[in-house]
Design brief:
49% strand; five-stranded antiparallel beta sheet; OB fold (Dihydrolipoamide Acetyltransferase, E2P); mainly beta
């Protein structure tokens, strides 16, 4: 799983992490503005057709039959691993990754899951 530290905006409506900003999902508890939480995204969930998008630079691509794992770096410098079923990506190329926020996992600063 890919883990990112995310910060809740002052109005509580957005989360920022990895150089992107996304709408804040409904979480299991109320959080104060500016709170930092962790988001967990599975590699297989970064191959969605729609959702929150992020661009990354491919570092290593592991072709494993019908799927490939792309080890990439976000503009923020964070490393991410994505599973892509159909890809022709090569190292040093920019790849588009998308995920559905409903499939992500959200954790409080204490490490306990909040959604």
């Amino acid at each position: 799983m890919n883990f990112f530290d995310a910060t809740l905006s002052a109005d509580g409506g957005q989360l920022a992490f990895g150089g992107i900003v996304m709408p804040a999902p409904k979480l299991g508890k109320s959080l104060p503005p500016g709170e930092t939480i962790r988001i967990g995204i599975r590699p297989e969930h970064l191959d969605e057709a729609e959702g929150v998008g992020m661009m990354a630079t491919a570092d290593v691509i592991e072709h494993l039959g019908s799927t490939a794992y792309i080890h990439a770096t976000l503009p923020s410098g964070e490393v991410v691993v994505a599973e892509k079923r159909r890809t022709q990506a090569k190292p040093a190329e920019t790849v588009s990754l998308r995920f559905d926020p409903a499939n992500a996992r959200y954790f409080g600063r204490d490490g306990k899951r909040i959604r």
